[in-house]
Amino acid sequence: MSISTLVAAAALAIVTQDQSVLRAAPRDSAQQQTVLSQGDTLEVRGEKQDYLQVYDHRRERAGYVRASQVRRTSLTRAEAPELLAVARFVRDTPGSEAMGIALVAAYIKAAPTQSIDTEPFDILGMLADRLARRASTASKTQEATVAAHIEVAKRYGVVFKDIERDGRVRVCYDGEAFRRVLAMSKDGQQLANAALSITRPECIDPAMLPTARIAVDQWRADVLDRVDTASLPEHIKNRIHARRAGVWASVAFNQARRGESANVAAMRALEELAGVNKAELAEEDQSAYTEAAIRVGAVRWGALASSVAPVQKVVVTTAPGESGQTCVALTDARRTNAKPAAVRCTYGIVWTQSASVNAAGTVVTLAVQPLDAWRELWVFKLGAEGWTADVLPPASSSPDLGYVEFAGWVPGGTHFLAARETRVDGRMRRSFELVRLDTLNTEKKAEEPSSLSTFYRWQDAAWKKQTVSLR
Prior knowledge:
SH3 type barrels; alpha+beta; 29% strand; 20 strands; 471 residues
């Protein structure tokens, strides 16, 4: 039962320790009625020895609990500052989120309405968000405790949602307290905390319909743009820039998928990624920065104007296909009114400005993006029986995050260079590779271009200038 329901009680007790026992009598040997979790609220009905006589409205049980295991409050105005002070302390104490949520609820009930600002909502949001992340990463030995804390938080009106992705369930806070902060606060730090929490990409339902996802991504971009980074510490600025980069990359993808120009959004994504100060990037933010870079890398071609002009000896053009498909056509630039030599259709975005043709005009590479943050490389090859097309994906596993891109032609006509960045099973990988044209298998690879002599020597100058893989 929530604190608002117990307001008529003479005194309340907030449980401060997990595994606190509610007993039938005021002694350790008395029968155990139930086990309490931190954050549980009890109505105090009396006191005997070192025990409080209480009633647990949530479980509809009466009994006795040790006074040392609870914090008493009468929800008076005089107690409000002390309740908020303790909540401030608990905010920075991992594992005490349920108790902190109970303290914030008690403060909001005790304090005069006109004195309540955005701070308690900021604290509440941070506690609920951290509790959700704990629930998502809890080990088997921690699951029971964290589940009890989640249940306590729900009794105070905190809402969590379960997001299933790749066979795993992530618990996410719905962000109601942070939305209040965004509506009321002018404090840069509070706005940054709120914006970063409610725009997490991992808390977007992968089963969401495309039209709904478009609206969510635009809303995320608007929320992040409300944060003025001028007065923020460098590491917080970095978090905002990295998150904006990833969000604007998604906006660019959505626009391109609708047939609109993605130029402005893709440029914004590149600018935000460039705005990250790597010298001040916190260790715990490295993964988020890399994820943002992969998302931006997947749409970076959108920042360049589309071109259908002849590229050496082959022209690459696109035309609408059936049921929303885009069809890619290759034609010989040396012949007028020539029929397409090869046609291949896709539901993905074809970045025609990425087309690259070898000197002999027998191989064409093209960037095609079927999903947000997942870009493949199409390789067209001219053989004895005509043109064939193969697809080189970022990774052989199910799509998560990744892109693979052409990085240069190797003399001899048997190999080309490729750069690849992926996230597979939560692990980020980046490689620079020498790829065989006949099989598209990687023959050699390195984590840095300088470590692979062939790559270092023959990398394409335009690729080197534009790619984000060399950040």
